[in-house]
């Protein structure tokens, strides 16, 4: 069947040869680049909103004073911290016209196989470290301190707290910030910079040491590596939450200087702080440096390079 409407005449040059009309380029300015808001401005805008929310939450210090000394204070604080990390990213997703899942936590993968694989890795890596310390006589698992319903309640409570901690820290340092900086300076420079900052933020913790800060930074870098290989932060969230839960609740060891109320085992350390971690907990042991190196190698072998991984 012939087309009932005549074809539109093509634009021609002076020698009657047809030409195509190129689409107009997107406007480029100090704030906008070819792919939208420039990464530097996006990063600063996100951090500005985070800082503003932190100052705004200071107004809740008096109402929260009623929870002082209560374990529930941990849950409330971590929920607020998670909100501080996520809400500005939701705003940036609207500004940048991106799906929120682009920043590392796609909803379709929520608490899926990557998350549980990460949780298994986190619990296992810490257990290996403590077993090594037990073999050389520097650590003892002890006996069960709480039982029955009380043990189950604290297990669930600390699981909720550590999930919020993992969401807050992973997304703040390896969510929107890592995605945006990667657009500007590349993945590994961004990962190293944010991991150093991640380690330094733990310097204010009671009982922290330089070994603890370095090991936290290495763990942050490992979590960046898992994001690169899996394409999602869900593995890192599971790893982070399970490590902290095992450290604080299950084995009852200090976690960055904090000893959790209602931990399962009354474990103990015996030996120099450089080996056991001292007041920092097992992540302050020099053996953690070796262990994280082995974790990098094992993960490299278990999760090969993705075809769509950033260069």
Question: What would your notes on this structure say?
Answer:
The longest helix has 27 residues, at 148-174. This protein has one domain. Helix 6 (176-185) packs across helix 7 and helix 7 runs antiparallel to helix 8. 58% of the residues lie in helices and 3% in strands. Mean pLDDT is 88; it is low at 1-15. It has 311 residues and is mainly α. The chain has a two-stranded antiparallel sheet with strand order 1-2.
Instruction: Estimate percent helicity.
Output: 55-70%
User: How many domains comprise the coordinates?
Assistant: 1
- Provide a count of the helices: 11
- Poorly predicted residue ranges: 1-15
Binned strand content: under 5%
Radius of gyration, rounded? 25 Å
Number of strands: 4
The averaged pLDDT comes out at 88
Q: Give a short account of the largest sheet.
A: 2 strands, antiparallel
Q: Structural class given helices, strands, pairing?
A: mainly alpha
Which strand order spans the largest sheet, edge to edge or round the barrel?
Answer: 1-2
Report how far apart the termini are.
50 Å
Order of helices and strands: EEHHHHEHHHHHEHH
